[in-house]
Design brief:
The chain has 3 helices and 9 strands. It is α+β, with helices and mostly antiparallel strands and 164 residues long. The chain has a 5-stranded antiparallel β-sheet with strand order 2-6-5-4-7, with helices on one face. The protein has a 4-stranded antiparallel β-sheet with strand order 3-1-8-9. A hairpin with a 2-residue loop joins strand 8 and strand 9 (158-163). The mean pLDDT is 95.
Length: 164
């Protein structure tokens, strides 16, 4: 199973993100849409491993004061699989600090992870046919007070992300 550490979202944040996806569809954007059940923010991607207990220990060692995270503007980046349209957050600083400490704790436990630079974002669409980012996003916020260890599995041809 593929492992990652993430922030999960309550129903109202997912609803706001689904509204953005709908607006993108109305603009003619097509691609591989992220399902509402899979919407999350990846803090670090680890990949194939059986070191789940050690990863959980590292996550538990990351302490932070709860903070409010507000959805921000849309952005895009290109991966080897194509264009991704994502939603950012207004203030990236708390998430950047947490990601830095999380990586330090994973390093301390000898856990290998994908070492790309952390950019707080929520993937909405992969393999997008166009760059459309001029979508209004409703004011939506949540209190971030924890991270969770999650797994990605392919079930009946669909990727399913679930908390471990």
């Amino acid at each position: 199973m593929k492992i990652f550490v993430a922030i999960q979202f309550p129903a109202d944040i997912k609803s706001a993100l689904l509204d953005v996806q709908s607006a993108l569809k109305d603009c003619g954007v097509r691609g591989n849409w992220c399902s509402d059940n899979n919407l999350h923010m990846t803090m670090v991607y680890i990949g194939e491993t059986d070191e789940v207990e050690l990863i959980q220990k590292a996550v538990d060692e990351v302490s932070f004061e709860p903070f409010v995270m507000d959805l921000g503007k849309l952005g895009t980046f290109v991966t080897k699989y194509g264009r991704v349209i994502w939603c950012g957050v207004r203030d990236e600083r708390p998430l950047n600090r947490i990601a830095k400490v999380l990586r330090e704790r994973l390093d301390a436990h000898g856990i290998r992870y994908k070492g790309t630079k952390f950019k707080p974002h929520i993937s909405l669409l992969k393999e997008a046919n166009m760059d459309e980012t001029a979508i209004d996003i409703e004011n939506a916020s949540m209190t971030v007070d924890k991270m969770v260890v999650m797994k990605s599995e392919k079930i009946n041809g669909e990727f399913v992300y679930s908390k471990i």
